[in-house]
Amino acid sequence: MSLESLPPELQSKIYSYMVTSFGPSSIHALLRISKQLHAVALPLSVQIFRNTAPLKIGKGPCSVARNAQFLRYILVSRPELANKVDTVILGGFAARSSESNPHASSPEELETYEQLIIDSLGPTLSKVDVERRDKWIFHLKRGYSDAQISLILLACPNIKRLYFEDFQEPSNEEVFEKPPSFMFLLEMAQILSASGGSESKALPLGNVKHVHVQSQYGNTCGWEQAIRLLALPKLQTYESLNATYQGKVPGDSFVMAQLPKSSVRSVAFHQSHAPASEVKFVLDACDNLTSFEYISAMWMPIDGSLPRDIMRAVLPHAETLTRLYLDFQDDCEREDWRENPHGLYLGRELAQMTALRYLNIGMQALIGMFDPIAIKRQDLPLQIEGAPRIVECLPEKLQELRIRECGKAIVGQAAELLDTIEKGQRFQNLQCIVLMFKHENIEIEDIQQGFPELTIESTRYSLAVSFQNRKMRWLDSGRGKTFEGIRAIPSLCSRIFADDLRRDWIDFRGLSAVHTSVYGRSDSTCFHAHRVDPGLRIQRLLLQKPPHEFGLDD
């Protein structure tokens, strides 16, 4: 049976697996086989619009020539395809042209684009907004990538995923400019959404559900862009990679006060440089936050981003937050621990997170313990004085607990937790516990001595004891490295440059262990979620060999 004999709906389902978020897509080959295959594959060929720096480079501005080509295709040559664009992946875009554009838009095309902008935004704009709209049109004629990208986002009403680099070259050594057309589009999306829009016109960015922003370190453009994105009416997930610590600017608090509560349920700050005060600034916009991830950016802690600081940022969401993943790089030396020792752990406030069901955290951030073998300085204590024990700080209704970067010091407290559960005194919902020890610092015999009762099968919980070496702990933090000749992976957290590997990383982090022993019930889904062989998964994540689908950027 040939493909062409199948119903178009089934063909479309099959061909959808040929659409990729990076490199040449096999779907384009089908366009040249036959008219029938062309008709089915054509909508899929524009499902993902990617315009980034070449994959072998990894970061940088988008191409204005590619923007112009795509605009011509979806608005002039095949305007019916604008509705088929589902995902937009972008490099940085700026309010000036960064390259010569031999494929610049013609006057006739520009007239079409101008009319689309005017019609979409409506006739009731204020004088200031008319000036901003006209500036957008002027920049479009000049070939500015910011104006082009904003028009693409306006013209494609069914975009669900928007991944982009917050990357602009500064106009001088210190000042970064906000992309004016993009900011105007975000504001108009909010205004039109609040007013109900028009029944005959789609709301700008009205169907976007997932946003991923990859920032440029040191970008001073502020958090207004993030807050505007959070105001999108259907947004569910907001992810920030490399969020700058220089982001907040005067006026952002006013912007915050003017915006409605966000529909976002999941927020992630991966490899974040932002202090907790600015993380809280974003979280405060969310009315029903259920999931939060925070991974520190550096081996040395950022001022104002210690575990206790982040705890205060998430505590207002105690009644809705069900999932919390925190990585403060416990391996790093804490040179300044004496200045704020109680900032190194979450504290008893964690127990106030009444809705929390899943917690993934390092030993130090949970109970203020140091692993003395791994720390070079010998004047560090085993534990910060006054830090709570595990049984004192865990939320009562927690179901799954994963503690990373463990040392010998935690064994006694973990045994106390297990004994409490076994006696049925507390934590009756806690069914899965994973302890990930530093492989170079402890042996399985040390664990068995601390848990002599583990020879008895428990029916109340499952306990996994894992051993991770430094390389695997580094992998859990999301850091990647360039695979020469294929593509650059600036981070495994990146949806722009490693979306396929990122899915593996999310599924596999914390379980990339040298050895795992399971005690109690061994049928728990906590330990059997792998869809591929663990060894192959680790090789893939570490880029020791490239996946077969890797290809050079087109």
Q: How would you portray this structure in words?
A:
By secondary structure, the chain is an alpha/beta fold. The protein has a domain of 189 residues. Helix content is 32%, strand content 14%. It has 19 helices and 13 strands. It has a 13-stranded mixed β-sheet. Helix 12 links the parallel strand 7 and strand 8. Helix 4 runs parallel beside helix 7. The chain is globular and about 80 Å long.
Structural category: alpha/beta
Shape: globular
Q: Give a quick account of the main beta sheet: strands, pairing sense, barrel closure.
A: 13 strands, mixed
Into which percent range does the helicity of residues fall? 25-40%
Task: Furnish the topology, listing elements before pairings.
Blueprint: H1 8-15, H2 27-30, H3 35-45, E1 48-51, H4 64-77, E2 87-90, H5 107-121, H6 127-142, H7 145-155, E3 161-166, H8 180-195, E4 210-215, H9 224-230, E5 237-241, H10 252-258, E6 266-272, H11 276-283, E7 291-296, H12 307-314, E8 323-327, E9 358-362, H13 363-367, H14 390-393, E10 400-406, H15 411-422, E11 432-438, H16 444-450, E12 462-468, H17 470-476, H18 499-508, E13 515-520, H19 534-541
Parallel strand pairs: 1-2, 2-3, 3-4, 4-5, 5-6, 6-7, 7-8, 8-9, 9-10, 10-11, 11-12
Antiparallel strand pairs: 12-13
Helix pairs in contact: 1-3, 4-7, 5-6, 6-7, 7-8, 11-12, 18-19
Short description:
The protein has 554 residues and is an alpha/beta fold.
List keywords for this structure.
single chain, 554 residues, alpha/beta, 13-stranded mixed β-sheet, 19 helices, disordered C terminus
